[in-house]
């Protein structure tokens, strides 16, 4: 049984959905009423795009309501794990946000927590019974669209291990390793290195987990062009795009999933997550 808390996010196709109504009380508190007309002995998976504390609140209430209905086996699919990038304290006075979310979710005592393309190994290490769904089939769909005559570009060391697994899954597409550096004082991006002398007009697909402001990808695109790359494509599992898509004009096409939000722009091709 599936309980899709976000009506626009239904990754488990063809499964029986549990009905519910949710609304906000006049004091601002979220509320949910689950239709009790289902077999509580069956396992339930909740799906939710957990992008804010309000979303988290609704999730907590939902799990509580299901437990009170005596549903024993509850799992969760949150495609984009909130604060996954806040996985270390950089400056004294900051929270370890990813752990705060993980602790709340751990308190729900879930059977399984599925996360799509976790930012780092910290999330699955902190979340009990966590299963990370890799980006393999997403990138496979992208490659089917643009053709496999491309090189996969890994923007930095963090993405490297994952991209070699993608390459293996795709039967050995070439990988180009890159690195990015940051100014130690400001933390701002200061440069990129592409570890290949000449890309000879070869089309390149940058693969990463998140595009936020896009600085990483614009900077890397410039570096790839300076090495004579052909067409440039970008595939990111979680599309935040907080500076809009205009900043990413250097890309022929941008691919993402609906893990974070929905899109209605021609420039972005959305591969809907299906499990
Ligand atoms: O450059 P923007 O898009 O802001 O940030 C995205 C990069 O920052 C990292 O956390 C992500 O893994 C990605 O490499």
UniProtKB/TrEMBL annotation:
InterPro entries: Pribosyltran_N, PRTase-like, PRTase_dom, Rib-P_diPkinase. It comes from the Bacteria. Residues 23-106 form the Ribose-phosphate pyrophosphokinase N-terminal domain. GO terms for biological process: 5-phosphoribose 1-diphosphate biosynthetic process; purine nucleotide biosynthetic process. Transmembrane segments: none annotated. Belongs to the ribose-phosphate pyrophosphokinase family. Keywords: Kinase, Nucleotide biosynthesis, Transferase. One of its GO terms (cellular component) is ribose phosphate diphosphokinase complex. Residues 147-255 form the Phosphoribosyltransferase domain. This is Ribose-phosphate pyrophosphokinase. The keyword Transferase applies. GO terms for molecular function: kinase activity; magnesium ion binding; ribose phosphate diphosphokinase activity.
């Amino acid at each position: 049984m599936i309980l899709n808390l976000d009506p626009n996010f239904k990754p488990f196709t063809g499964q029986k959905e549990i009905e519910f109504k949710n609304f906000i009380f006049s004091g601002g508190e979220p509320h949910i009423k689950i239709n009790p007309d289902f077999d509580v002995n069956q396992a339930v998976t909740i799906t939710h795009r957990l992008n804010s504390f309000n979303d988290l609140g609704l999730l907590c209430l939902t799990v509580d309501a299901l437990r009170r209905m005596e549903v024993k086996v509850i799992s969760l699919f949150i495609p984009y794990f909130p604060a996954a990038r806040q996985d270390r304290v950089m400056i004294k006075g900051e929270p370890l946000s990813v752990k705060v979310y993980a602790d709340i979710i751990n308190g729900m005592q879930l059977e399984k927590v599925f996360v799509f393309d976790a930012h780092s190994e910290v999330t699955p290490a902190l979340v009990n019974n966590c299963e990370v769904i890799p980006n393999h089939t997403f990138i496979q769909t992208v490659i089917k669209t643009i053709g496999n005559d491309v090189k996969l570009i890994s923007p930095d060391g963090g993405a490297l291990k994952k991209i070699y697994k993608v390459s293996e899954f795709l039967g050995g597409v070439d990988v180009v390793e890159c690195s990015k550096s940051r100014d130690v004082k400001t933390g701002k991006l200061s440069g990129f290195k592409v570890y290949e002398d000449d890309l000879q007009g070869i089309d390149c697909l940058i693969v990463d987990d998140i595009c936020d402001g896009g600085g990483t990808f614009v900077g890397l695109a410039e570096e790839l062009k300076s090495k004579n790359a052909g067409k440039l494509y970008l595939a990111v599992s979680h599309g935040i795009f907080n500076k809009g898509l205009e900043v990413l004009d250097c890309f022929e096409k941008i691919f993402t999933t609906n893990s974070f939000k929905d899109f209605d722009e021609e420039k972005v091709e959305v591969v809907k997550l299906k499990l």
